[in-house]
Amino acid sequence: MKYAWLLALSLFGLSFSAFADEARGPRIVRYHFTQPSQLDGLLKADGDIAARGKGWVDVVMPAESAMSLQENVALAEAVLGLKGETVLEDAEAQMRIFADKEDLGVYHTLAEVKSALDAAVEAHPEIASLHVIGKTGEGRDIWAIRISSAEEDGQNPAFLFTGAHHAREWISVEIPLAIISKLVDGYGSDETVTDLVDSREIWVVPVTNPDGTHHSHTEYKMWRKNRRPNDGGSIGVDNNRNYGYKWGGPGASPSPGSDTYRGPSAFSEPENQAIRDLSVAKKFVSAISFHSYSQLVLWPWGYTSDPTPDAEVFTRIGQKLAEFTGYTPQQSVELYPTTGDFDDYMYGGLGILAY
Fold first, then answer.
1. What DSSP character marks residue 228?
2. What whole-number distance in Å separates Cα of residue 321 and Cα of residue 354?
3. Does the N terminus or the C terminus of the chain have fewer Cβ atoms within 10 A?
4. Which of 42-46, 98-102, 256-260 has the lowest mean pLDDT?
5. What is the mean pLDDT of the segment spanning 292-314?
6. Cα separation of 335 and 321, whole Å?
7. H-helix or E-strand containing 53?
8. pLDDT over 90 (residue 225)
9. How far apart (Å, rounded) are the C-alpha atoms in residues 5 and 327?
């Protein structure tokens, strides 16, 4: 399993979230439930569910002092009577650690991401090229790196890796960067890597949501969405609820203040448009969206418990990935229902095997 992530290049993804009140540090609380209706209540209250196990969910909750505020009343009612224990008391503590430092330690700032991409292309121009696939609402470039020794003629199967749909999931940037490094540095010396680069077209978008990621790095660690100004004064759309397949259904909030706000329409966000346009143009065979928290390997569908027509393939590859990572493999809806997400759009809209 040494090269399990490379072996199929048919891959995996996870999820994490936040109830944004930037004046207060949120908590992560594990609530235990005995009936499905209790979980439904959390979802209807726009509960920011970070992980789910047998009979429990981890929820990103506002600080205790914020629970009486009007916007949190529904959430307070949903957790009333549920047994809970705090998993993380102050999710902003990490930001305060970095506040007095020049950088983010082992994590890459946006400037450092760009430097890493430039360095990869400069060192290996025969296989790597850098592309701007879109612009964010705040005018930042959305970068994609193509890695292949073959001509860009559509003759080789193409694969996509993405990171940072959700701004606060800093490590979801690091994994795509590590994949880039493995591929470019191993080309010519590692037989497996060389074969992959010669016979495939690999695209990596390490930061899907640059505006939100910059805000998380500099202002508020637990920021999840992009930075679109919404009607009513709130900020942000959840990029992993804005894709076009089954957009606007369960698990995607119509409320602009929610951390799972789906946006005013499908593909309203430039980040989603960029991923869509690249995917349509390249006709990817498989794709991965990296997230953090939960330790899961997820695949479609997220909107229904019905299996996909390719459920056997999804399950077989998902289980292999889980062997490699030690994660739990499952259909996405088993975490919680979602609509307008990356995986369901890639598969349902474009026929791409997505994890």
1. P
2. 13
3. N
4. 98-102
5. 96
6. 17
7. strand 48-53
8. yes
9. 13
Task: Tell me the two tokens of residue 59.
Answer: 């929820």
Q: Are 157 and 150 a contacting pair, CB within 8 Å? A: no
Please say whether the beta carbons of 243 and 268 come within 8 A: no
Q: Is the peptide bond before 203 cis (omega within 30 degrees of 0)?
A: no
**What DSSP character marks residue 235?**
B
Nearest residue to 17 (alpha-carbon basis) of 287, 336, 340, 345: 336
**Nearest 10 degrees: Cα torsion 261, 272, 280, 133:** 180
For helices 110-123 and 210-218, angle between their N-to-C axes, nearest 10 degrees: 130
Give the separation between CA 158 and CA 145, rounded to whole angstroms. Answer: 13
Entry pTM = 0.89
Q: How far apart are CA 291 and CA 51, in angstroms?
A: 12
* Segment holding 211, helix H or strand E: helix 210-218
Measured in residues, the chain has a length of 355
Helix (H, G, I), strand (E, B) or coil at 326: coil
Please compute, for residue 297, the number of CA atoms within 13 A of its CA located in the half-sphere on the CB side.
21
